[in-house]
Amino acid sequence: METLATASEALKRCSKCGGCQAVCPLYGETQAESYVARGKIFLIKSYLEGKVELSPKMKELMSLCLLCKACVDNCPNKVPVDQLVLAARREIAGEKGISFIKKNIFQNLLQNNGNLSLAARMGYLYQHSGAQGLVRKTGLLKLISDDLAKKEGLLPKVARHPFRRQVPRVITGSRPRIRAAYYTGCLTNYVYPGTGFAVVDVLKRNGVEIVIPEQWCCGIPALASGDEASAAALARRNIETFTRAGVDAIITDCASCGSMLHDYADLIEGGEARGFAGKVMDFSQFLNDAVDFQPGDREVPLLATYHDPCHLRRGQGVYAAPRKLIRGVPGLEFQEMKEADRCCGAAGSFNLSYYDLSNRIGKRKAKNIQETGAGLVVTGCPSCIMQITHVLEQEQSPVQVMHLAELLSMTYAGEADCDLRAG
Ligand code: SF4
Ligand code: SF4
Question: 14 CB less than 6 Å from ligand 1?
Answer without folding.
Answer: yes
